[in-house]
Amino acid sequence: MSLLDRLVAWKNRKIADPRFQAQAVRNPLLRPIARRAAARSFDLVAGFVYSQVLSAAVETGLIEAAAEAPVDIEAFAARSGLSVDGAECLLRAAAALRLLHRQQDGRYGLGEEGAALIGNAPVFAMIRHHKALYADLASITPLLTARRQDTELSRFWAYQADAGPDQAAPYSRLMAETQALVADEILHSHDFRRHDCVMDVGGGLGVFLERAGARHPGLALRLVDLPPVAALAKARLEGTQIGARLETFGIDFHTGPLPTGADLITLIRVLHDHDDGPALALLQQVRAALPRSGRLLVAEPMAGAAGAERMGDAYFGLYLWAMGRGRPRRADETASLLKQAGFRTVRTLPARNPLLISALLAS
Q1: Which DSSP state fits 72?
Q2: What are the structural domains, with CATH classification, of the chain?
Q3: Contact 353/284 with Cβ under 8 angstroms?
Q4: Residue 98, C-beta contacts closer than 8 angstroms, at least 6 positions apart
Q5: Lower CB density within 10 Å: C or N end of the chain?
Q6: Which of 290, 266, 86 is nearest to 186 (CA)?
Q7: CA 52 from chain center: how many Å?
Q8: What is the pTM of this model?
Q9: Please, are residues 193 and 216 in contact by the beta-carbon 8 Å criterion?
C-alpha cells in the first residue's frame, strides 16, 4: 500500500470513529466541517428524492411558469392537475432545492438553480428522458447481478439497422437535442480548418456537422449512421445551407467497412456506448478508413475527468449498465484502445467543461 493510500485509510478511520465524530460536533473549530460532512452524507441518501422533485418540476411546467411570472399555489394546482396540498408540497420542495424562490407574498418566483436551466432545451430533454433511467434503477441490486437487455433504457436505445423511421426517431431526436450542448465545446477544442473533409460516424441527425459546416464553409461533410437515421438526417438538412455539402451513408458500422476519403473522422458520444470488443473493432475500422496522415477525434464524457469525477463512474457507469452495453472509460483507457487499433499517437485536447465532453485526438 502506498503512503498516500495509508494516509487516506488513516483519515477515513478517524472520520468513522464515533468518538471523533462526537468531538468534532462539540469543537467550535471543527463543527462547521462536521456539519458540511453531515449535509453531504444526507444528500447522498436523499439524492433520488431531489431528482424526482426536479423531474416533477419539469414535467408539470413549473420552472417555465415561474420564469414567466410568480406562481400561486392554487392557480398552479388547477393548471397542473395536482391537488392544492400536492402543489404546495412540490413548490416548497422546489424552493428548498433553489429551483424556485418563495416570495414575501407567498408566491414562488424562479430560483437560482431554476434560472440556470431556463433556455437550455437540451437539459430539459434529458430530464424528461430520465424517467426511463429512474424506472431501471428502482431496484438496483438485482439490476447489477447481470447485464440485461429488457430494461427501459435498452429498449429506448435499440439501435437496429432494419428499424423504420418511427423506431429510430425518438432516440435520434434526443441525441439531436442534446448534441447542441457539446458541438461548440468540440469545435473549440480542435482547429477544424486543418481538414478538408470530416466524417461523423454515428452522427445522428447531423447537429454537429451542421454546426461545423456553418463555422467552416470550405469543409466537406459526411455523416455515417444506421440507414433509418441517415435518412432522417438527410431529410432534416436538405435545403439548409449545408445540405448541398453533406453526404450521408446508411451503414451499420458493426458489420460493414466505413467509407474512405475523409481526413478527419469524429466519434461523438459513440465509443462509450460500446463494450471493449466492439469499441476496438470500430476503432480498427476507423483506422482503416483514414489516410496515413488522417486524424480521429473521440469526444465524450470520460471517467476521471478533473472536476467531473461523479459524472463518469457514478452517473454514466450506472446509465450505461442499465442500457445494457458500454462503459465510461478514463482517457488513458481510451488511449490504450486507440493504440491497439493502430493509432500511433494520442493527445488530450483542452476541455472547457469536462462535465459535457472530453476529447482525444489520435493519428
Answers
A1: P
A2: 3-117 (1.10.10.10), 122-362 (3.40.50.150)
A3: no
A4: 111, 112, 113, 114
A5: N
A6: 266
A7: 18
A8: 0.86
A9: yes
How do residues 81-132 score in pLDDT, each as one tens digit? 999 999 999 999 999 999 999 999 999 999 999 999 987 777 888 899 889 9
Eight-class DSSP state of 325: S
CB 325 within 8 A of CB 152: no
| Angle subtended at Cα 269 by Cα 263 and Cα 275, rounded to the nearest 5 degrees | 100
Chain segment 191-226, per-residue pLDDT in tens: 999 999 999 999 999 999 999 999 999 999 999 999
Model confidence at 254: pLDDT above 60:
yes
Coil, strand or helix at 119: coil
Render the burial of 105-128: b for 16+ CB within 10 Å, e for the rest: eebbbbbebbbebeeeebbbbbbe
Q: What is the DSSP letter of 313?
A: I
| Rounded Cα gap, residues 121 and 100, in angstroms | 18
